[in-house]
Every structure is written in structure tokens, then in C-alpha cells.
Design brief:
- By secondary structure, the chain is mainly alpha-helical.
- Helix 2 runs antiparallel to helix 4, helix 4 packs antiparallel against helix 5 and helix 7 packs antiparallel against helix 8.
Length: about 280
Amino acid sequence: MHPILFEIPRIAFGDWTIGPIPLRLYGLMIGVGFLLAIWLASRKAKKEGIDPDRIMDMGVYLLLAAIVGSRLLYVLVNLQEFRQNPLDVFAIWKGGLVFYGGLIGAVATGFWYVRRHKLPLWKTADILAPYIALGHMFGRFGCFFAGCCYGAPCAGTVCITFTDPRSLAPLGVSLYPTQLFEAGGEFMNFLVLLTLYRFKKFDGQIFWLYPALYSILRFVVEFFRGDTARGVYFGGFISTSQIIGLLMFGGSLFMLWWLGRAGEAAGEAKPPERPQKRP
């Protein structure tokens, strides 16, 4: 709603000046979400017998990969926009991060890090999954403050109107609060994954449940989005994120089936325990 929390005023040192420096709520929310998520994940890892310092270190790699991946996908979808101003590719403070790109980049980097440091792959992934959803919730709050990822015009009490001239959303128009829709859905995903973690039947189950749940959430929210820069096809009927979501949902179901079968096979391969003889 208001992109900038406050500005550090301009400071002059003779002929050299610095500022004003704005503190943007978009970046602040992403930073808070990342720090909280990685801290909680490291605490969970310690309880599961995994070095928490490894999780903290991996978090830095995941953050960088997520930013690069999310920006790269946005640029690829909107190449025409950046042909005239190529340097705008690096202006992420103006908005333009696609979560699916960040998720793909972070997952690929996470797999590399886990293999390199010989961590249990799917067990580590299960630990991280709920907190990815939590961190993403904060990211969507950042989108709300910045005005990016805004909704389509609407009428009713649920609608919001952006008035700050620094907002990326259209001003003075009632819009669906799609950023808040997704933030609320991600909080529900976080609670569901955290609850199901205690009842999981095989490693990797919680991790692959997350993209399955998120793809459903994103597919629905996309119908209320109004920013055409995300890429739309077939006369606006379906977006880039919905196409990726369909593929990700199918891939997640396959991985859940495959890992579940592998877990059953491993369980059947174990020799039955012999009853202990009574003294």
C-alpha cells in the first residue's frame, strides 16, 4: 500500500552527497521472511540431528538463487519490456519477481548444496518446505506494500485502492487484494505442512506436498490478477504461472507416488525382526 517506510535524508560532505536513501517495505518484508524462515528451519534441523549451521549457510545460497531465478523468469516473460532499457533488468526494487522462477532456482541450488555437503536429501528438503511457505507469505506482504502483483478491478468490501504515487499498482482503482489472498494461502500451507510433518510416511513427502499445494493456490489466485506483465495466453484465459503450476502439480504428484513406492519397497526389503527370547 505504501512502498517506502521512511527515507534517510540527504547528507552532504563538502562536494560529495549521499541520499536520500529510502527504506522500501518490499525488501524489508523479504528480509524478515528469509531470516525468520531460515532460523526456524535451522532449529528444526537440530532436533532432527542435522547440523543447523549447514542450514544457515545453505540459506544464503538459496536466497541468492531465488532472487536470480525469479528475476530471470520475469525478464524472459517480458523480454520486449527490457529491450529498450536493458539496465532495468537489475532494478528489482521496481518489482518483477516471479516466484516459480525463484523456486526452481532455489531447488536446483539446494540439491547441489545438499549433495556437496552429503546431507540427507529428502529429509533436509522436508525440514525446509514449511518455512519456504512462511517466508513466501512475508514476500507477498512486501508485494502488497509495493503494489506489484496487483489484482483485477473489482467492486465490493474486499477490494482495495492504492493511492500512494510511488506504488506500482494503478492508482484510484478498486482492485482485488491478490497479494493478501496469496499471503493468507501461504500461511495455511505453512500450517498444513508443519502439521503433516509429524505424520509423514516417507522422506520427501512434505517437500513435494508444498509445490502441489502452492500450484493449486497460485492457479486460483491468477484468475483475480490484473497485471498482464506476468504473461497471458489464449486471450488472457491462462497465464505463464498457471501453465507452470499445472506442470509442477503433475510433477509433484509423480514424485509423491515414486518416493512412496520406494519407501514401501525399502520397508518390504527389511528382514522381519525376530522376537526376543524371554530369559
